[in-house]
Amino acid sequence: QNPDKPHSSEEKLSGLEDGQEESLDNPDQSIRKRIRQGAPGSHRDDTPKSSPPRPVSIEELMETAKGVTNMALAHEIVVNGDFQIKPAELPEHSLEKKVRDIVHKAFWDCLEAQLKEDPPTYDHAIKLLGEIKENLLSFLLPGHTRLRSQITEVLDLDLIKQEAENGALDISKLVEFVIGMMGTLCAPARDEEIKKLKDINEIVPLFRAIFSVLDLMKMDMANFAVSSIRPKLMQQSAEYERKKFQEFLEKQPNSLDLVTRWLQEAADDLAKLRCKMLPPHCSGDGATGGASALCSTAVQNQAYLKLLKWDHVNRPFPEVVLMDQTRFQEIQLELEQLLLTGTVLLVTFSAAGSALVDMPGFAEKIKTIVKVLLTGMHLPSFNLQESLATIGEKVCAEVNSCLSQHGFAPFSAERETGLKGQIQAAANPDNTISKLIDSRIEKFLENYLASSHQKSLPAIPGGLGPIQRELEEIAVKYVRLVNYNKMVFSPYYDAVLGKILTKGESQLVGKSEE
């Protein structure tokens, strides 16, 4: 199995999964991609070795893929309050769209040709009426007895066939009934589409438009079902996701390799950090020097912090957080932009002195400037140096304007040059001020993770006051995501960390005996 090959067997199988053509921007596509990348030998050079996966049948593979898809869908419904199912939209000039359009045109042309025969042939039209009947019945609730009887009686296919054979079929009357029934069953948002149907006089375009509106009504029913099951799903989601992941793990025993590597790195980082804080005599013990002070919760929190610095291009995401990769990546990008905003504000206030610190509205103006000019900063075509140069110009102009309005002397040319240089220096990863802001943001998030059971947020570190509101909003979103992930996968974390920490302690004991 080659992850770089564009048409692997798993991709072909993924097209057979239920509901895939009408999915949102779900993480299940990423999950299937990760299943492909999880083949033996890929990304496994420096990870603990597990038992080799046993051969699986096509049926088992499809069942596993469906289970993962259902788990991802349930997760998305619970985590994303705005989740909605939307119809698939094919790219404008794609081969799939061209093939679909050609097939659809051929089908409707065939129907039109049959209806224009003398006498007309109604085979295709009757089949379409049968499909419409099934769709209408699928919208009914158990209590809709009268509507069910009406649909069954009017759209009696045996009777319709007899009328067609005897030349007594009035298809316009049947279509009129269908449109009226659709108007009864549809959501209020579809009233306009129903009204447009009544203005279409030709049978073939009308049939085509009816099926288009029926597709929209299916989406409405599906989204109504999602909103209805969300409260019940939230009560059982953790257990359900854990159960589905366990089923997947039983079929793919190596599905915790990336998690093991991720947690091992977090434990090593934390041990080294703790060792630096201990007296000098422990430094010779390396990463195991702080192992005795480690606990499972601290390692997990450190691992979650590592996700905010993840190389999403070159490194696969750990399996148990894969469904939230997009959300973690969004938070990571927001923090990177906030880091630059905080750096610009800090150097600006430092350059201007106390004159602008308490000036109402000044910090918001600077944040607006930075936010607008850093839009798209994570795109490959974005030029950070040019944007920071423009930000420097705008910030200096705003500083001088505010100083003049409040009776202070504007910046000299020398001070302007110095401020612009400091702002442009923020593009350097080794910039002292950026590293200071970054470490304080990370410390704030770490403290919030450690005290997430408390209702109040931890105190904001010095220098982050101007970006406090934005940082707290990101922190709340981040910690909510982390806590839900812990709730679902904590048994797996405990099992993996039990081995990692036991191994670290045994190494420490061995060194002590030596």
Determine the N-to-C terminus distance.
47 Å
Q: Can you count the beta strands?
A: 0
Largest sheet entry: none
Structural class: mainly alpha
Write a structural description:
This protein is mostly helical. Among the domains are: 95-227, no CATH class; 303-503, no CATH class. Helices cover 65% and strands 0% of the residues. The chain is built from 18 helices and no strands. Helix 2 packs across helix 3.
Quick structural gist:
It holds the Pfam family Tcp11. The chain is mainly α.
Provide tags for this entry.
single chain; 514 residues; 18 helices; 65% helix
List the helices and strands and how they pair.
Layout: H1 9-14, H2 28-37, H3 58-79, H4 95-115, H5 123-138, H6 145-154, H7 157-165, H8 171-185, H9 191-197, H10 203-251, H11 257-277, H12 296-306, H13 325-352, H14 362-373, H15 384-405, H16 413-424, H17 432-450, H18 468-513
Helix pairs in contact: 2-3, 3-10, 5-10, 8-10, 10-18, 11-12, 11-18, 12-17, 12-18, 13-14, 13-16, 13-17, 13-18, 14-15, 15-16, 17-18
